[in-house]
């Protein structure tokens, strides 16, 4: 379901950008907080974009609110689909 996700970064941003899926194990000392909604992530899986954690349902385009399921673009701490990023 989440295998094909990748992050494409703005060329002016420094440092590498990564997106991944992590299994939230029971050995975690604290729960991650979602960058999108600021609530703790209690799901079995969480999404990681750069150094931020997201609920799967919160990972959506800042303009059109479409789910970001195959790629996402990052600018000024916001995520975009390819179409809206190019606008």
Automatic annotation (TrEMBL):
One of its GO terms (cellular component) is nucleus. GO terms for biological process: neuron differentiation. GO terms for molecular function: DNA-binding transcription factor activity, RNA polymerase II-specific; metal ion binding; RNA polymerase II transcription regulatory region sequence-specific DNA binding. Keywords: Developmental protein, DNA-binding, Homeobox, LIM domain, Metal-binding, Nucleus, Repeat, Transcription, Transcription regulation, Zinc. SUPFAM superfamilies: Glucocorticoid receptor-like (DNA-binding domain). InterPro entries: LIM_Homeobox_TF (IPR050453), Znf_LIM (IPR001781). The keyword DNA-binding applies. It is found in: Nucleus. The keyword Nucleotide-binding does not apply. Pfam families: LIM (PF00412). Residues 32-87 form the LIM zinc-binding domain. PANTHER family: LIM HOMEOBOX TRANSCRIPTION FACTOR 1-BETA, LIM/HOMEOBOX PROTEIN LHX. This is LIM zinc-binding domain-containing protein. It comes from Alosa alosa. The lineage of its organism: Eukaryota, Metazoa, Chordata, Craniata, Vertebrata.
């Amino acid at each position: 379901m989440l295998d094909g996700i990748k992050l494409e970064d703005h060329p002016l941003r420094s440092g590498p950008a990564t997106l991944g899926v992590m299994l939230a194990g029971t050995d975690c000392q604290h729960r991650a907080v979602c960058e999108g909604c600021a609530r703790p992530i209690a799901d079995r899986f969480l999404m990681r974009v750069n150094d931020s954690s997201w609920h799967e349902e919160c990972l959506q385009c800042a303009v059109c609110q479409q789910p970001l399921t195959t790629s996402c673009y990052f600018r000024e701490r916001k995520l975009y689909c390819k179409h809206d990023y190019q606008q």
